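Listing 4. Sequential folding, example run.
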Amino acid sequence: MDVSYRMRAVVVPLDPTPAQAQLLRSYCGASRFAYNWTVAIAKQNLVTREEERRAGIDEANLTKALSWSPYSMSPLWNSVKEEVAPWNRDVCKHAFRSGVNNASAALKNFNESKNGVRRGSPVGFPKFKNRHSKQTITMIDISRCGSWFSEDSRHVRLILPRFAMDPRITRRREQLQWMHTTESLRRLKKKVMAGEWTVQTVTISFIGGRWRSSFLVRQFIVPTPSAIRLVGPLVAVDLGVKHLATLSSPMKELSDDHGHVENPRHLDAELTRLAKLDRQLSRCGKGSKNRAKLLQRRQRLYGRVSRTRSLYLHRLSTTLTGSFETVVVEDLDVAGMVKKPKKNSTKSLTRSIHDAGWGELRRQLTYKTEDRGHHVVVVNRFYPSSKMCSHCGETKAKLAISERVFECSNCGISLDRDVNAARNIRDEGIRLLTNEASTVAGHKLETLNADSRDRETKPPRRGRGDRYQSRTAQPTRKLSPLA
């Protein structure tokens, strides 16, 4: 059997001591310092070359262009770090390397976007970070760090500076070396020790008012059948706000009889508490201790909402990808929906779209189907799934968002708007599967084949020198629409 690998991130919440949290903040500050230094050097080089061009200096005599790759920036930083950062011995080298690499990646994205190589929205020149920016550090060189996990699988190693001058670090190296985790690392440690997973990088960040560690692991996999019993071959998912999703095939304990999956609206449930915290923050003075406490409370509240939403979406995506062989979804332009509110939309609708997490659900469905050897079919975003009748195919010119019942003027059928859209997405997914050049009789990729036809075709004409006679093409069995 073919053995391949995939990259996955395992997120573990941390519970550091106050001394460890202070050390982590110093690491993130050092990473931010190296990031700003790299961006400043690159910007200074561009400004110098531009001033020389204005002065009339030939292109060959200009100041040499600075390479933005991390392999060029890292040696340059190491040559000047004793001058610009004399305190560098109290911070591990991974902090500076992480900042330089992040800046190089940002400069690369800017260059590719400027030259038209990078797809998507334009990327501007990197901006400088401040102390309010995201606190994160990535441990890249992990070959000399030994094991990341303790014997009890409850602690993660914290890399300390080798030649620290701060007595608070030198005297308490044993206490600072291991950070406690709120979840067990037994499974992750077992996979790493067995050689099935390999830790590539470890990123420690402060998100949602809490520290967490993200292990980027390389998983060696062998394609195996899904452990969950398949309920059906195909399911279509129509995403919405009133209902988080509408399934073409209802499932017990996941949706109602019509296929509607409840939208829990995690953020709306905490709006009252968030408004109270905002009022309290407005009465606090800047730089006060009470303001810092309230900011931390608000960060933790947002973090709890985000974690609750992620767990709910994981449950939904795991059930769908494990129960069906093919999942059909729409290619929604979420960024365009929330970028600029339309005349007939409100601010609450934009907030509800963010709260639903359509993009996260699409991402989870994509990688979970790949893990199980299943298939995801993406329907074009311009396909009129809501405006077209799923019974006769009649298409309406306009359909307001407030109209929750679809009534066809041609055949007279009356359906729920989301149920009608889910059925149309299902039919379009079946059509795309049928027209795929690599599909024979089922949803899985088996052998290469021509476009499917519903009738026999005549053999092509050949010259007299052809030794082989063509055979009449056999019709390919088409997929029948699911009820």
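-- end of first protein; second protein begins --
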Amino acid sequence: MIELRDVSVIFPNGQAALRDCSLAFARGQFTVLLGPSGAGKSTLLGCLNLLRQPTRGTIETDDLGPLKDRRTLRSHRQRTGMVFQQHHLILRQSALQNVLMGRLGYHPFWRTLFPLARAERRIALECLDRVGLLHKTLERADNLSGGEQQRVGIARALAQRPRLMLADEPVASLDPGTAHKILGLLHQICKEDDITAVVSLHQVEMARTYADRVVGLNRGRIVFDGVPGQLLPEVCNRIYAALPSDPSDTIAAKVESDAPPALLPGNAR
């Protein structure tokens, strides 16, 4: 469905965040990116919707081909939902208004300056209902609990009618009980709608519980790619090992001929 081929990301300071990463994500697969802080999980997620421009390598989908020009990138972002660790809601607006943000990418800029049509509001209400928050439709986001805010974030991503769902540490700021409810809800929705999901986590047990596939990262490299049942102690040690400093982390930028990566404008919504 979406594939990365030999993707590397070198930061301007010379640090290699990703190195020669090649991965293909199948339709409907729930993949967990597992690894310590700084392993490259967020960078890899950013590459999947090109919020992080690779220094080298290509990214392509099965129907759009290589994501190079503005038109194909816009089409890809329209149907790529994103769930963030810190929710990124507009706190003074209602749950409904926040979910409607997921529909903006389907309209020209001038149209977004006016209230969206009733059909768009119906989509947003359906999404709120699916995450169990229809009764909170008109509640301001800052009056919601952390778990409820994250469910609004999932509903907003779902309103895009996504084929690909990206989630960057979506439960890191939640207590364990709420974290399982949120991740279970996200897993259920993606399975029901046949959405390809790529979720970054650092909790091994949650990866074992919800993932179809686990990709382990350490220092920008893929060190494991398999099913949750293969997450044995020695595999986890490899993923979370404190590796010695690699000279290529800093030398890479000196031999890199491409321009340093630049963040592209925000995801179209």
